Amino acid sequence: MGDPDRTWREDVSRLAWLRLALAAGLVMGMLLSPNLWVSARSYPLTPLWDAVPPLPYPADYALFGLFLALVTGVGVARGRAVGWLAATALALAVFFALGDTSRLQPWFYQYSFMLMALCLFGWGRIGVLDALNACRLIVAATYFWSGLQKANMGFFHSLYPWLVGPLTARLPD
Hints:
mainly alpha; 6 helices; about 0% strand; flat; membrane
């Protein structure tokens, strides 16, 4: 049987690397799509809830920067600070999503759900292994749902032939 302390330390290390990867991925995704997260842009906002007003310039940029700072903090902080930073980032994520449905990108809500697991871990509500397993489940469920969405007639009749067309064109008759 292995050393339980060593296993626990490895799980803590995995979670630390996961926090860094999650923070880097979310920050980079948002930096690659900055116009999506601010109110001043060429296409209109489509709010989920009209009670959430669009933020004027420069408040929208300030909130965008605050969100990036909070997520970065989740990646580098330790202890209970992770929980509070993640909770505040999640509150801003909900605000962003309520302000515009275009912001509900799969990568964004996947990272948000994973932030929720880190929040619970940071507050001591769940253990290291539970946080890792929750994040594993979120990733697996996202891929499963993505695959399930492709199991429709439109995909098989339109997209699939186009997708494999270059391969089947090279096959002998």
